[in-house]
Amino acid sequence: MATHRRSVLAGSLASFLLSLVPARARTIAGKLPWHPSAGIPPAQTRPGGWEFFTAEEGATVEALVDRLIPPDPKFAGGKDAGCAVFIDRQLAGPYGSAQRLYMRGPFQDGTPQQGMQSSKTPAEQYRAALAALDKHCRATQSGKVFAALADEDKDKIIGALEDGSLELEGVRTPQFFDQLLQNTKEGFFADPIYGGNRDMVGWKVIGFPGARYDYRDWVERHNEPYPLPPVGIQGRPEWTPGG
Fold it and tell me: What pTM value is reported for the model?
């Protein structure tokens, strides 16, 4: 046994010593052996219609996000900022199908800190909740769907979703509200490449410089507006290749 341990230690020491030998340099000619975003580049959102939502679902989500982040005279609200488009593209992709979430049982109610506890994917949860919301509105709002209601009535329903006083049929209502609110905030502040934060409005609201190369000179300058416009992963719309 001692002989075996000595062999293992000797082998480990040899490997360590070999690691100290500098690697032979190689000459690179022509071009660099890499290119930007060669690893896992973000996929740019394709323009056009809904990819997951139906037209009715899209209208409902636009109405919801525009009350969660209402417009004002200076800045766009959730709808014009593209929050519904962001959510639609996310639900049509890996997030919607729960590709990166643990989706095996047992499924039971947990604490908020334990995250989603459901056998349904995010896409399935949205589809069920939006249908249940419009069903409730038709039954209680003279046949109108949520998107057709006055802003005051929309706000009352959203408040009831948040505090749990309104339970939608077959839906864990407070959990769905939390999910919707989180996704709306993500759509408002994420890079525009993902479909939301249109014209970088979310970054303009908070004075965030975006993906600029260097703004260290401004990190400690509190309560001072950053003088340059924000920049996204793909630059700015007015920038053109070679410009």
Answer: 0.76
Q: Cis (ω within 30 of 0) for the bond into 122?
A: no
| Contact between residue 176 and residue 87 where contact means Cβ atoms under 8 Å apart | no
CA distance 27 to 44: 35
Query: Is residue 111 assigned to a domain?
Result: no
Residue whose pair of structure tokens reads 């004002």 in the numeric block: 72
Is 223 domain-assigned? no
pLDDT of 85-117, one tens digit each? 999 999 999 888 777 776 666 667 767 666 666
pLDDT tens digit sequence for 53-82: 999 999 999 999 999 999 999 999 999 999
For the chain, how many structural domains are there in total? Answer: 1
Q: Which domain holds residue 134?
A: 55-101+119-207
**Torsion on CA atoms 185, 98, 45, 67, rounded to nearest 10:** -30
Query: How many Cβ atoms sit within 10 Å of the Cβ of residue 182?
Result: 10
